[in-house]
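User: I want to check something. If I give you two sequences, will you return the structure for each one separately, not as a complex?

Assistant: Yes, each is folded on its own. Here is the first sequence with its structure:
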Amino acid sequence: MQVQSKPVLKGARVTLRAPQPDDVAGRLALGNSPELHRLFGGDPSQTRALTEDAAQAWVDRLIGMDHGWVIEMDGRLIGSISLHSLNLADMRAQMAIGILDESCLGQGLGSEAMRVLAAHAFGTMKLHRLSLRVLGFNARAIAAYRKVGFREEGRERESALIAGVWHDDILMGLLSHELLDETRQ
């Protein structure tokens, strides 16, 4: 698979960079956490050990995305972030993020990565709106999104079945003039 040229986007602590074929080892080292699997909408009891093939598929998927980046901190892969469902006519896209290193949770790294990507989306790409969806029980993610300026815009009731239990999806949006910098949190 050919690696696409993507800009390197830098924050104070994180760097968003194009995925590379050698990221397979970094992804493999992070493994699969049942708790993270649940927060991403999977059944934690169905979490399996991450295989090299699955790590390769993760990297290949990111490489194949026009707007998909690896999140790196101190030279190591900690997750990914992307824009998808890009609609240039309406100047909008959807954002997705996954911090896969549990030791990096709760440190503001996800908020920083989202802020960096949103600044790129609103500045360089000239988008007007970003949106995302998050499971209603994922309080840490919702707080991180709010730190960036995302606002709740709706709720899809009982839209996700996880381990036999229904959960709501919260729909959130951010307009270009609503992006919060770290000093205005």
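And separately, the second sequence with its own structure:
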Amino acid sequence: MVKARKYVVKKHFEGLPKREDYDIVEYELPPLKNGEILVKVEWISVDPYLRAYNSRFPVPYDQFGFQVGIVEDSKDPRYPVGTRVVSHKGWCDYCVINTTDTSVAPAEIPHKLPNLKGLSNSLGVGAVGMPGCTAYFGFLELCQPKAGETVVVSGAAGAVGSLVGQIAKIKGCKVIGFAGSDDKLKWLEEIGFDKAINYKTADIAKALKEAAPNGVDCYFDNVGGELSSAIINQMNEFGRVSVCGAISSYNDAELPKSTILQPALVSKQLRIEGFIVWRWYSRHSEAFAELTKWILSGELKPREHITEGFENMVDAFVGMLKGNNYGKAVVKL
């Protein structure tokens, strides 16, 4: 029998998650059945949606999330011992995965780690995983950028935003990013952003007008709130907005109020569309191949913020929600 550990959410979060909101439970995994694999977890992802979805589940619940692991025992010939898999089994150090269950949602279906051609396996929960697909499809499919257009990205130093900005540059766009520290601004400009603005210290409307005197064509929205209202009110006619998230409000007890958008939406005939990345689940391999190619060519430079140790999961999660990470926040076991 294999002993495993997992994080169980025992209390709904109030504001930022806290260590006392979790229990670490030790338990024995059952023997494998046909169609199952035993996975030793190597990398675990922490992402904003873990906070956003917290109130949707009754407690207690096992903390979900993406992970990369290696198969240590198998009763499915398609996944021999030594195979690396990406799954949504969450914050645990070992798990049993049923590889034949077709009744689960797309996010719950495990897949073999893409061929990363020598890159770090951690990218399977980052730039060549769900966040990478989120950037790739959420930006390219909804914004449909054209060379020469001006693109704005909020949450630009995060896992998704930093990729969106670089993809926009690959497509020949001018890119402006908003982030929360001067060090992050410097990094964004190092990876190709034409301008980066500190939303905590700048006069947002004035700074954006100076950076984009001819207006904004595409906006990739990770944060919501007043920042997004200011950006949307400077968009050009027929501008496109891809709404990925609203991390600025995830820890608020009450939703914040922001400037009305309807005058800009109507007068500029803007298109705003939210999305969940699983819309394009059948095309994820397309994104994986393209993202890997760009990384290997040096056109895309993913950055990881690595925390080591299973016992530090909550610290990594809270740090990401506070904006301490540059690029993808991931935990190494």
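Because they were folded independently, the notes below concern the second chain alone. The first strand starts at residue 2 and ends at 9. Residues 94 and 140 are 36 Å apart (CA to CA).
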